[in-house]
Amino acid sequence: MAQTVKLSDNELLEAAKIKKDHFSRSLNGQIEYWARLGRFVEESGLFDLHKVNLAFQGKIPVDDLAPEEQHAHAQLLWQSLEELDGSDEGVLHEIEQAGATAHGLNKQGDLEETGHDHG
What we know:
Layout: H1 10-22, H2 27-44, H3 49-56, H4 67-83, H5 89-97, E1 101-105, E2 111-115
Antiparallel strand pairs: 1-2
Helix pairs in contact: 1-2, 3-4
């Protein structure tokens, strides 16, 4: 039975639109193909997504990951950083509480930093 799925990731959707033509697939076919690959990776045991998520949460060192897992970790981190727009004060507060420095653009477009020592 076919079901409708909404994608909120425009970058993924645009990439699928490009790749589908390379492999003579429909847009749905390309996304389904990627979904099957993701399921295979998770179930294969060759790539431990659970470890990647633990590293992403800071619960294990990134150095404990295999090279492929480190790449996935970097992709997750980059994606999360791209999603930050400065409007989530909770994230900023967590960064400051951890004693780290956060950098961002102010309303004038100038780089500012805030953090443990920078208030």
